């Protein structure tokens, strides 16, 4: 390969990897690409001559390209500062990741013997093949752990949107991993599987002869673990303990007219609805007295987003339960959302107690803050209600918010009611199952569904122990770096003494 192509190819691979990973997210929704999206970037980092500076650049280009594309709605929606923070933080994440891989991850070299024979299953045991498989698994472990802990560290400073594992929220059995590890476990699985895929192709190319089970152990074991995780997810979905069931009606017409929402609610009032959720309504004088017609304030409660004009954004929420009416005023933030520490500033929880259940409305950007969602679970709030305007930059932005919020809610074992537009609204159980909504065909003004409400102290393992998995990944990286430094020091001292 010519020298200039040798230098250019890893750069192109990094850009291609960022593009593929971004396409797995909304609005493109090519979920399957997440299983191969990291492969080009990993090839550029591991299969070409490397230097710590080139590794930094390749990693930064990969993650920066991903961030620039997946958060492009921020730029299109007039929030360039938020876009820059996301792209910059992801580029830094990728740069450190690339540097770490460049220093501490090595794939075993080929045998040098290229005896071509049919690639058929073999049954003999090969110590060399087994050792390579174990070395490949170790490389995948370290690579995935490094990405996972860096992604988690980024989430400490910025709202952790669009982690690599977020795409797996579309796979209900694998989504259950998050109840144990949070999003970190899903990201780990994604990166680990991508490197194993690269290794499998590389091994076939450089070792084209007959393959034994030992020479494929890294592939078979990875597939087996993912399969068993999916089976465990299926089992958990079937055996999840039932909670107190509540009927929810989600009212999302293309209007803020009070009368229209009331009429739609009246149609559902005889069906045992426990709680109505109205996406957005403009209340007028005397409207509260008319709620009795839909049994709201008697046997049913209401959580409604409120607005002051026909096309105005949400400016608060109204809560109506038997014996009480409460209005929540949303104070607009003057700061961008995606800045260090900005997500949780000035945001408080306003739960309501009704029907032996604690519910919390999260309005607009409140629903996009994972720290606030976790705080709600910590305060024993049982159901999350997200009432949001369509985010700037197109429908893909709101889809990303829903995907992230669904993942966070499942990881904490909390049901979710998501009200945006009638084309993007959903009622989601605590296991992540969508019982109604998300782009229904044809679009409807009313969604109804039943959710099992967990007990206030019915936490998932992740809710109990927090980000233990990400911390464990950090420990793996530290041990790897430390042991590798010791090994190289011994090798150097051995050469000097010789």
Characterize the structure shown.
The chain has 498 residues and is α/β, with parallel strands linked by helices. The protein is 48% helix and 15% strand. The protein contains 16 helices and 14 strands. Strands 7-6-5-4-3-14 form a 6-stranded mixed beta sheet, covered by helices on one side. Strands 8-9-10-11-12-13 form a 6-stranded mixed beta sheet, covered by helices on one side. The protein has a two-stranded parallel sheet with strand order 1-2. Strand 3 (244-251), helix 11 and strand 4 (275-281) form a beta-alpha-beta unit. The longest helix has 31 residues, at 127-157. The protein is elongated. The two termini are 37 Å apart.
């Amino acid at each position: 390969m010519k020298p200039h192509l040798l230098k250019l190819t890893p750069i192109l691979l990094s850009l291609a990897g960022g593009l593929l990973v971004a396409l797995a997210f909304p609005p493109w929704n090519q979920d399957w690409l997440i299983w191969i999206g990291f492969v080009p970037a990993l090839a550029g980092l591991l299969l070409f001559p490397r230097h710590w500076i080139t590794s930094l650049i390749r990693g930064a280009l990969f993650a920066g390209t991903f961030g620039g594309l997946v958060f492009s709605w921020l730029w299109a929606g007039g929030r360039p500062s938020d876009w820059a923070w996301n792209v910059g933080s992801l580029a830094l994440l990728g740069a450190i990741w690339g540097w770490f891989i460049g220093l501490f991850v090595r794939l075993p070299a080929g045998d040098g013997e290229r005896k071509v024979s049919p690639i058929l299953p073999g049954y003999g045991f090969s110590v060399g093949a087994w050792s390579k498989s174990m070395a490949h698994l170790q490389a995948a472990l370290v690579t995935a752990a490094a990405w996972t802990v860096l992604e988690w560290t980024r989430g400490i400073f910025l709202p952790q949107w669009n982690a690599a594992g977020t795409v797996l929220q579309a796979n209900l059995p694998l989504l259950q991993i998050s109840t144990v590890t949070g999003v970190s476990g899903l990201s780990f699985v994604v990166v680990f599987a991508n490197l194993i895929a690269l290794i499998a192709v590389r091994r076939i190319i450089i070792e084209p002869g007959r393959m034994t089970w030992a020479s494929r152990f890294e592939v078979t074991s990875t597939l087996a673990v993912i399969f068993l995780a999916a089976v465990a997810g299926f089992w958990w979905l079937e055996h999840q303990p039932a909670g107190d069931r509540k009927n929810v009606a989600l009212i999302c017409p293309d209007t803020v007219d009070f009368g229209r929402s009331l009429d739609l609610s009246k149609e559902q009032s005889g069906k045992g609805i426990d709680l109505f959720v109205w996406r957005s309504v403009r209340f007028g004088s005397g409207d509260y007295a008319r709620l009795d017609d839909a049994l709201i304030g008697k046997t049913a409660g209401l959580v409604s987003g409120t607005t002051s004009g026909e096309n105005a954004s949400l400016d608060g929420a109204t809560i109506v339960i038997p014996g009480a009416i409460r209005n929540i005023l949303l104070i607009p933030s003057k700061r961008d959302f995606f800045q260090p520490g900005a997500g949780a500033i000035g945001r408080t929880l306003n739960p309501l107690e009704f029907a032996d259940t604690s519910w919390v409305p999260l309005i607009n950007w409140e629903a996009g803050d994972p720290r606030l969602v976790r705080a709600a679970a910590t305060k024993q709030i049982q159901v999350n209600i997200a009432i949001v305007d369509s985010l700037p930059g197109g429908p893909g932005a709101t889809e990303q918010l829903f995907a992230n919020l669904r993942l966070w809610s499942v990881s904490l074992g909390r049901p979710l009611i998501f009200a945006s537009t009638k084309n993007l609204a959903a009622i989601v159980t605590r296991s992540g199952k969508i019982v109604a909504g998300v782009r229904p065909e044809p679009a409807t003004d009313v969604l109804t569904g039943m959710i099992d409400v967990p007990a206030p102290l019915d936490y998932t393992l992740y809710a109990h122990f927090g980000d233990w998995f990400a911390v464990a990944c950090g420990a793996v990286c530290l041990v790897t770096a430390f042991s590798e430094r010791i090994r190289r020091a011994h090798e150097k001292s051995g050469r000097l003494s010789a």
